[in-house]
């Protein structure tokens, strides 16, 4: 479904990704874990076209999308919910969600039933349903995070990239976000999840990759990574070893 081969990316002269490869099979949830500065967000940006890769290939559904503009990659079926919850503050919750479906409304993607999907998004995120007429800028951080996720799903994408969905959220909201991710997985949504809470990510994922200093150091089924001594020491230590 989503295949990354030997991906290299840099900011200026500083190479951040040194040729990483990973696979996100259809209907699976794959997580990418690693410490801050390992290159997780850079990976997401290089996949979705926010930055141009220096080398390697990104293939979506058998189509080479490497280095394409992000709007063209979105049209090909890749939705990116970036870190930092970028929502359109002066627009209502509903209008933000409809913007997620924009390529469908312009026929750049199969249209399907946008209204039905809007209702589904509201059902998935009850907090958004309550606040559907509110301006997005008046939502709490947690609600804005949910809106960014829901907007990505409104593309009706082949693959969703979720970049740090729990960042900066209160624990109760982190639990809610992961509940929603688990529900999307049950519905067969293909996802690549970058997450600081490695334990929560490995609990919900099918497969995991560990990124260290711009290279994949380890990968395997999420259930076995959870018990890998190196992963436990580096990422599951102390408070998050549930």
TrEMBL record:
GO term, biological process aspect, one: L-amino acid transport
Pfam families named in the record: ABC_tran
ABC transporter domain segment(s): 2-238
GO molecular function, one term: ATP binding
Keywords: Amino-acid transport, ATP-binding, Cell membrane, Membrane, Nucleotide-binding, Transport
Record flagged with keyword Cell membrane: yes
Transferase found in the keyword field: no
Gene3D superfamilies attached to this UniProt entry: P-loop containing nucleotide triphosphate hydrolases (3.40.50.300)
Family: Belongs to the ABC transporter superfamily.
Record's protein name: ABC transporter ATP-binding protein
